Amino acid sequence: MLQGYLSSMLPSELTALFLFLLLLVLVIYLINAIAFYNLAVRYGVPSPWMSFVPILNVYQTGRFINAMLPDVPPLYQRFSHISFCLLTLGGYAINTIITLFVPQLENLWSIFYTPFGLAIAFLLYYLFFSRYVPQKRLTYTILATLICGPIFILYFLSKERKEQQNT
Questions:
Q1: DSSP 124
Q2: How open is the CA angle 128-37-29, to the nearest 5 degrees?
Q3: CA dist 45 to 36, 48, 122, Å?
Q4: What is this structure's pTM?
Q5: Residue 113: which domain range?
Q6: Which of 85, 111, 152, 167 could form a disulfide with 59 if both were Cys (CB 3.0 to 4.6 A apart)?
């Protein structure tokens, strides 16, 4: 049905749709990068600029989780962001290979891979909200996982900055 609708569109309409979607993706990416940059600065994660680089931001996510996990053995803290990065990038690679070479298995793979991505996002948001709104952390975590979570991160970090300036 969608394919029939798209094929009936004029080339200028398709170009406008493509440019709109591209702009939307870039805006979401920038909001995410800015939120993760601020998170890196707040928690003292080295090289906060990595939040803006596509592959390195996956590595940074593992570092955020390490920085927010309380009482984790130092050995685990050294390697968990690397294993997280390898797991995530390995999932991306398998997803790309399946999509390109075995498209029949794409839906089956997404059944396994999508929950992994959601679980990582859920963990990151849960740890974040445990520090900022412990009594409502589960509610905020679910909302952030389902909606645009970086907006919540930016909100609470800016709220924290205002509170620090007032004291």
A1: H
A2: 95
A3: 10, 7, 20
A4: 0.69
A5: 2-166
A6: 85
Torsion sign (Cα): 114, 79, 127, 124 = negative
Distances (CA, A) of 93 to 112, 119, 165: 14, 19, 45
What the block records as the tokens of 71 is 């009482």
How would you write the pLDDT of the chain (167 residues) with one tens digit per residue?
555 655 666 677 778 878 888 898 888 889 888 988 988 888 888 889 988 988 788 778 777 777 776 655 565 555 566 666 666 667 767 767 777 777 777 677 667 767 777 777 787 788 888 888 889 888 988 888 888 788 888 888 888 888 888 87
Taking the CA of residue 39 as centre, how many other CA atoms within 13 Å lie in the half-sphere pointing to its CB?
A: 34
For residues 156 and 16, give the distance between their C-alpha atoms in angstroms, rounded to a whole number: 35
How far is the CA of 18 from the CAs of 14, 148, 159, in angstroms?
Answer: 6, 21, 36
C-alpha span between 111 and 125 (Å, rounded): 22
Domain total in the chain = 1
